[in-house]
Design brief:
Radius of gyration: 22 Å
Order of helices and strands: HHHEEEEHHEEHEEHHH
Distance between the termini: 21 Å
Strand order of the largest sheet: 3-4-5-6
Largest sheet: 4 strands, antiparallel
Helix content: 40-55%
Strand content: 15-25%
């Protein structure tokens, strides 16, 4: 798996998180939730479901350590559909990475996302503009059907007691893990090349257990 990890690290190194998310979207079907799910699936394949994270408390700037729940690796991305509520019928498609990229530079990002995701809205079978009340209900519905579109963890700082929601972005965090792992693998390749003259292919072809033993014998 080390060669696969290095190849993935090479293809993602230096790319902006939006590019990584867009690439995952193209492979996974377009929606933000599907894109995040695709990235998390790759992360699970390389590193498993244990994920230790750090967040900077916005109140006192202390670091808060926490673990991502395993459930985020099992969440199923939602699909386009309709939302029925108190006489309202909203037909929609889930926001895509392209929608996010366009909305982030707009004066009112939320309004842009809504306008792009909304297909048709009716109240008692009559076309109608969305009210604040139905907007709140619809957004809550979207959170339920596409839980990976925005991944947020509820945190509390032990140092000062401040509570807040920390947003987790797989497209930003996963490449950091890849780089750390790639540096470790390449340092092992370097150590065995210096000791035995082996090329990268030979070292990566060793099982992890045999590689560790050789590294132990050369004091690396």
């Amino acid at each position: 798996m080390s060669d696969v990890l290095l190849t993935e690290w090479e293809t993602t190194a230096g790319r902006h998180p939006w590019e990584r998310l867009a690439s995952a979207a193209a492979a996974a079907g377009g929606s933000v939730g599907a894109s995040n799910a695709a990235i998390l699936a790759r992360r699970k394949a390389h590193f498993g479901t244990t994920m230790g994270l750090l967040a900077d408390c916005p109140a006192c700037r202390e670091w808060v350590e926490f673990s991502a729940p395993n459930g985020i690796f099992e969440s199923v991305p939602g699909a386009n559909g309709e939302f029925l509520w108190n006489g309202w019928r909203i037909e929609y498609r889930l926001p895509t990475v392209t929608d996010l990229m366009i909305a982030r530079s707009a004066p009112d990002p939320r309004a842009v996302l809504v306008s792009r995701a909304l297909i048709r809205a009716t109240k008692n079978d009559q076309v109608a503009d969305l009210t604040p009340e139905v907007m709140v209900a619809w957004e809550a519905h979207l959170d339920e059907v596409d839980p990976l579109a925005v991944i947020e963890f509820s945190l509390k700082c032990d140092a000062c007691g401040h509570a807040w929601g920390a947003v987790f972005e797989p497209a930003r965090e996963y490449p950091r893990e890849l780089e750390v792992a790639a540096r470790r693998v390449l340092s092992e390749v370097d150590a065995l090349a210096r000791a035995y003259g082996w090329d990268e292919k030979t070292t990566l072809g060793l099982s992890p257990a045999r590689r560790r033993m050789y590294l132990h014998m050369v004091g690396a």
